[in-house]
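anyone seen this seq b4? input:
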Amino acid sequence: MALADFDGDGRLDVVNTNPATATVSVLRAEPGGEFSAAETYAVGAAPNAVMAADLDADGYEDVVVANAASDDITLLFNDASGHLSNSLAIGTHGTSPVALATGELGGGAGADVAVANRGSRDVSVLLNGSRVGFAQVVTYAVGAGAAGLALADFDGDGDRDLAVGNDLAPRVTLLLNDGRGAFTPGPITEAGGAVMQVAAADLNDDNRPDLVVLTSEKSVAWLLNLGGGKFAGPVRLKVGEGPTTFALGDLDDDARPELVVADTSLASIIVFRGRGADGFGDPLVYATGSSPISPLVADVRGDARRDIVVANVNKDAVSVLENTCSP
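predicted toks r here
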């Protein structure tokens, strides 16, 4: 699931994958935090990851979808009215793509795309070389599997690197950017379990991107950046028996990200307040309905407070938890 203002009305819309029907759905935001009926768009087989980004440098948010069963990504282009009218499929040169990252990696106009290919244990990088097109696809082997991606300048050289969550070993592998969009293997960090998701944010106010990981050990952990692409050991947080995914975002406007974990065993989300150098505070649990997954943190009601949006898989619905903190 991803959020973006596709129609330019100042409100964040939702785009969500539907693996069973090989489609994505766009739900347009309406005043008061409600959403319209879904518009669906055909993509590849078994779509399981989606992100929004301006791919053709026209000022409008487009959509990238990873399709695990057809080994490709689908690009859906915004027609400037908020509708995704044109699509393009590009093979990843790998198998079972399951995670995405978008941003400036060294290409030309428009956002570049990185894809974690779980089946072939590699990462594909697609540099955006023109208004609507990617000049080439380059793959980088990571050996111990690829189940998650995070994009940030991990080694402090001014270029965005990739952190790859390895799901066949308890670690995170860095791919370091040379500034032109070519990557070389960097330090390997022990994560305390096979990594299913990884995200980056500055947790301790030192202007370095740290890591948060979800592991196969049913745990969530944070790892502080020590500089030069090296990280401290993982610090685990207590969650329920069924953590599925997580998100990072500042819910209380203190410039420190909170950690939001979706947990199916509790039918809830767990919120850990950011404490800077002290990591995270005690957990706060909020009911969401059955099978919560893919939480996001964003202001969806337009009141200057960031809310939590979460998908409920079994109900085929999206829940919004409204933020009542003072802005």
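The mean pLDDT is 93. The radius of gyration is 18 Å. kinda curious what u guys think
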